[in-house]
Task: structure prediction
Amino acid sequence: MTTAPQSNPIELDQTPKRRISLRAALLVPFLLQIFGAVGITGYLSIQNGQRTVNDMATRLEKATSKQIGQQLDGYLPLVPKLAQINADAARSGNLNLQNLTQIGQVFCSQMQNFPVGYAAFGTPQGEYIGVERLDTGKLVINEQSARTNGKLAVFPATESCDRGPMSEAKDDYKFAGESWYVETVKAQKPVWSSIYNWDDKPGVMSVSYNTPLYGPDKKLQGVMGGDFILTQLSGFLTKLEVSPNAKVFLMERSGALIASSADQQPFIMEGGKAKRLNAEESSDPVIREAAAQLNQKFEGFAGIGAAADLTAKLQGQNHYLNVTPWTDSQGLDWLIVMAVPESDFLGAVAANTRQTILLCVVALIVATVLGLWTSRWILSPIQSLNQAADAVARGDEAVELPQSNIAELQSVSQSFGAMADRLRYVLSALQTDNQTLGAQVEEKNQALKEALSRIRGKQDHAVQKQREDRAKLANLSTQIGYPVSSMQTELDSAQVNLTTILDELCSYREQIQQLPLELRQEITTADLDAMIGDLRKRTIVLEQGSQRIDSLSDNLKQHIQHIQQG
Result:
């Protein structure tokens, strides 16, 4: 008989678990890695683009602020210098303050060489001479004196700074009421005036630096000064190439607008007079909201002590805000503010982002197709091997094993073929063993039946014998029980009689104790006491015998019952 090789049984985990297909196990991690790598790459690309935009916006804002500061540094200091030069010339006598024609020619000559907006001189007597640079760049000479009948006469200046024919005369011009004159007289020293609009031209706004001139008697001879026309500064801000939608504006610490790149003047006209605007009152929403956020951020414009870069949401769009203080040595203190929308920088970044997303999508599609093809290439022989295993499990003998170009899968297929051959050999051996074991089991069953028959016969004989023994014991119990019962009855009767005699003797002895002394002396009680004592002993002996008989009778009954039950 062939015996199959023994091996330890394989215990399979029968706990129900969620199963997944091998295709999913191969494809899902692969795709997750690809998605993760592509997603991280795209995210980092976008973040890098955002950082690039932030850096570019910051650099642009700083460069623009520097450019504006250089413009202010290049032009505004000229006004104090010219005012000081002219004041020094007047004090030295080189400039005759009584000769307005000479003063006009000097001013004109200076302005041909220096980009100053206006040069002026006014006296307490109401005489006034000034040279103005028009928006066209041409110069005009303005004079108000007795020879102009108190009117402000305007003369175009020639290249040699002579006067051309008078072009117009303006009535009611009072320079003595303008800020440049009033504030200088009050300060009694060279100062920057507050920003003001001209009386004769309310549409022109300027800031002037002026020097008071005093004679030997300390009396005021006049005010010498020059203007920087701020409305021309707005044109400079408009021409700055910052970004398509950027807004640049200058304002004072009070919040009043000085100039801006917006298509709006920093003042409004009311009743023929100019009224300056606060930045938070500007009609341009970006300037208005930017000023409001700066005011809130720094708790007032006076709190802005150094240049700062911020981000803010203006008109629903993200903006880069830059605020830079600008000051000069004579006391000017302004703020340069820029608001650049983020969208102005996102054009290239958006194109780069779209290209990155497109490349990511293409990479994902290619990776998915390759993953599906790879999983199918790997799974095809595995599925064929699985089908072959099912066929072997069903008992099919003609099973064709798959072939694969993958070395590991080919090795598995060969191992499975060897296992299938071994399994067929084992099954054949098991069938032979089963037939042999069937015959042996039949022989053993027949022998077992005969043994059971003999055992039943012996068992029936033993039961019959036990029944006979029980009947004999029952008869013996009856035979023994009657004499024992009779003996017990006689002992009980004797015990009762002895007890009665003992009670009578005791009563007799008590009666003797009650007789007179003479009679008691004649009756001898010694024998009586001995008799009572002997009777008591016998009574005790009879009682003990009765108890022994009862115990013997009970033990015998229990033994007989035990035998009958067994």
Remarks:
- The mean pLDDT is 80.
- The chain has ten helices and 16 strands.
